[in-house]
Amino acid sequence: MALIDEHVNEAVLKNLDRKENFTLFGLTVPYLFLIFFLIIIPVGWLFYMSFIGRDGSYSFENYERMVTSKSYIRIFLTTFKISFLTTLICALLGYPLTYFMSQLSRKWAGICMIGVLIPFWTSLLVRTYAWLVLLQRKGLINNIAIDLGFISEPIKFVHNTSGTLIGMAHIMLPFLILPLYANMRAIDKDCLKAAANLGATPTRAFWTVFFPLSIPGLLAGLLIVFVICLGFYVTPAVLGGGKIIMAAMKISSNIELYFSWGAASALGVVLLVVTMLILYIASKLVSIDQIGGNK
Amino acid sequence: MSFLNRNVSETQIRLKDRLWLYIFSILVLFLLIVPSLVVIPMSFSGSQYLEFPPKSFSLRWYEAYFFSSSDNGMGFNDWMGATWTSIKVAVLTIFVATPIGTMAAYGLSNSSARVRGILFPIMISPMAVPIILVAIGLFYFFVQFKMVNSITGLVLGHSLVAMPLVLIIVLSALRNYDMNQEKVARSLGASRLRAFFEITLPQIKFSIISACLISFLTSFDEVIISLFVSGGDNSTITRAMFLALRDQIDPTIAAISTVLIIISSGLLLLTQLFGDKKD
Fold first, then answer.
1. What is the ipTM of this complex?
2. b/e map B141-160, b = 16+ CB within 10 Å
């Protein structure tokens, strides 16, 4: 008898469980609905469009053009070059700063973190505009340099690669610092004490103990910065002054000026595939929570 | 100078050996904060050139911002009109993104690890897909439904970008929350809905407020989606600024930038305050 009761109980519980799961799934439906209609369908459509040629039939001409046309190859090279250099600058400036912050007490690190978060939440356009103002021919930086006698003629900083790099590095730096800081804070300081105890010099302890332990955070930060740079639009458009053409800008001009959806889509698909690949690698290295900017 | 010999780390490194790191770090922090702030003194400049420090002071650029005519020939409404559009869209984004994101976070945090593993990557996809692709995808989609240049289209687009942030914030709040409390309420006869509103919500309310503020800011600062799906009388302030920036360095933008800096740092301050309360 007892056995039968248990079975009845089990069935009821299972049913309740199923109901519960169904309700919980129901709560995610509006979210998934928006994702489906506003991301999956449009991106799927872009994917489809990338295989449609100028005459409306299926073809690979949009992809062929990317390999054969000199202007497309140049855009790919520019995009990678700018993204790579921005990432490198961020690493060189961000690693020592984050290391410094990770060594401070929580209170002081929190104060420094405000310095990182203020630019992070300041409008991208405002920061781009500020650099435009600072770097222009008669801007603050040229004026100071001339007053101090470093240079006699104003240096051209904006509307070229250097201006774009300065602006982009400033915007991307917090994206490197946030995951790296989370990683460095989690490193057990006793490991360093142990190294010192065993006779390692501070430099040696840093390079053989601390640095290897910080590599996952550093790599995640670098990959995120690189990926965001690949899709950058506003800053190179303003600070590059039309001379720096990156993939996102080409996608936009293909649509706005030439109404060439096929060419834009193919470029977009390539950008998407590269981005997803890099993000997949990054997600294996660090949890996504550490990236959002919420300490 | 004995403080220079103080130990500053676990490996007995002395302050003077590490002074370069302190100086370098302070310099980088300075470079992070100060550049965006130079626009503030410049916005009060009396001359029509952007000089620093300004030789004379005036409020003419604020006048240009607040009282500009709608006839500027740049393909958007006047600055104030664009600002109001931005505010309207950002407020509506809060009301779309926060409830939808919170509901999804609640559902996700109570479901099995397997379901979570499948749904979470899909849900944060708006953060992963390059924003330019989201923008042209939306543009194509809205053309089909005649929603280009509409407030609805903008709000949907901005909500799409804000939802993953809401999801991440609320999920992390729910992770620190003991769901058994809701079970207790339900075993005492409360419905699930009532248990959520009376037991769970009061305990995660600061995270929800943070999520609202971040939704607002995300929408308010968004440029690329606005560039593609807004236009004419429904241009946002970011679209108007971008179009103006491409052509010339208009000092009015310094005044607008100052206002934007005040808005975003004010909101950031609020989120930090609520964030520190740690529900």
1. 0.85
2. bbeeeebbebeebbbbbbbb
